[in-house]
């Protein structure tokens, strides 16, 4: 039992050292320090454009900007049943409207407005 205890303790210590070595792999002062700038060209050469500053290394780099969303497509006209269903669901969970008649009036108003704003059917 004592031998098993010593072996397991040694394995735990070895695993801890391995994990810490993996974590410390990229934190040396060479990794953190900026890279040296390239040396300037000799004076006798053709006029050159100034060099851009070096890109940051490691965690300081930025990802490419996200691509813009595609342009919206032409919406198809909704059927009257879809319009009624959308309007009813809009007011379905509204706890302020307790009276079913008041809810029905709001749904009818929504259906009229939505139907009026629909693109023409093709």
Total number of strands:
0
As a percent range, the share of strand residues is under 5%
Low-pLDDT segments? none
- The run of helices and strands is HHHH
- Helix fraction? 40-55%
Structural class: mainly alpha
Distance between the termini: 83 Å
Query: What oligomeric state do these chains adopt?
Result: single chain
Largest sheet: none
Number of helices: 4
Q: Give the overall pLDDT as a whole number.
A: 74
| Radius of gyration over C-alpha positions, nearest whole angstrom | 34 Å
Shape: flat
Description:
- The chain has a domain at 80-116.
- The protein is flat, with a radius of gyration of 34 Å.
- The chain is mostly helical and 122 residues long.
- 46% of the residues lie in helices and 0% in strands.
- It has helices at 2-23, 29-32, 80-92, 100-116.
- The mean pLDDT is 74.
- The termini are far apart.
């Amino acid at each position: 039992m004592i031998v098993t205890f010593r072996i397991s303790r040694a394995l735990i210590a070895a695993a801890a050292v391995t994990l810490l070595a993996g974590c410390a792999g990229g934190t040396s002062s060479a990794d953190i320090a900026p890279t040296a700038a390239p040396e300037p060209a000799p004076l006798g050469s053709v006029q050159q454009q100034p060099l851009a500053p070096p890109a940051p290394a490691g965690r300081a780099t930025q990802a490419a900007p996200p691509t813009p969303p595609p342009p919206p497509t032409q919406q198809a006209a909704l059927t009257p049943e879809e319009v009624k269903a959308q309007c009813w669901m809009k007011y379905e969970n509204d706890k302020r409207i307790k009276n079913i008649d008041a809810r029905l009036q709001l749904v009818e108003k929504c259906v009229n407005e939505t139907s009026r704003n629909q693109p023409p059917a093709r």
